[in-house]
Amino acid sequence: MSLFKELDLVCHQLCLELKHEYVQAVLPKPDIDRDKLTIYYMLFRMNEPQQAAGSYTKSVMVAEIGLNTHETMTCEKRTNKELLKQRQLTVLSGDFYSALYYYTLARQSNIELVKWVAQAIQNFNEYKCALFFPPVHFGWQELIHEIKKIESALVGKIARQLGFKHVVPYISDFFLIKRLIAERDLRNEEKHTGYFSKMRLDDDQLVEKLDSEIKNRTAQLSQALKRSEDQSELFLKLKDYINLQLPLTA
């Protein structure tokens, strides 16, 4: 079976595991980041057979989805009962996905992976607190650096623990670019949420800065991949995948 057929199977199984009748009746279907799913699977597949790699990938993706679900929760005051109920269910569904993650890993008896992800989630929360409650004012590049740490907190931790530290810079840059594109799209849709919601820039100014950052970061990542002398199997697979995805993201 080819890598992408294996990934299709993992994605299908993940969709089935995420189904919850009541949650889906009230909240949107959880978004599965196919890029993260692919890269997690590539990482695990280097050391594990297909079934184990798929199980670990699904478990970590559930943890990612739990974090992302909590991130969609609104903070403004709600008086409408239905909107208030939706917010409460958003919190509970994020908790449900997080609990599902621990449950699936516990069934596999992989205590080390549970520990790695727990540490990564702690780092993720600390990075977000530092972003939204900084001890000093962040300049533009400091802000970008903090977002990069958040976006790769979990996948970077897994890569390092599996012995693939050499690919973390490329993975981190790729997911930073994806996040900046998502932030730009939010502003283009005039949705004042996301990591840049507190910046004192109007929409046009912020979109212009994000466009420039995305363009520069994409060019730098492409050049870094091209210049690298790394000939490891994992790097070559990631290089091909990221090069294929970069034009689609930007």
TrEMBL record:
<dbReference type="InterPro" id="IPR009920">
    <property type="entry name" value="HEPPP_synth_su1"/>
</dbReference>
<dbReference type="GO" id="GO:0009234">
    <property type="term" value="P:menaquinone biosynthetic process"/>
</dbReference>
<protein>
    <submittedName>
        <fullName>Heptaprenyl diphosphate synthase subunit I</fullName>
    </submittedName>
</protein>
<dbReference type="Pfam" id="PF07307">
    <property type="entry name" value="HEPPP_synt_1"/>
</dbReference>
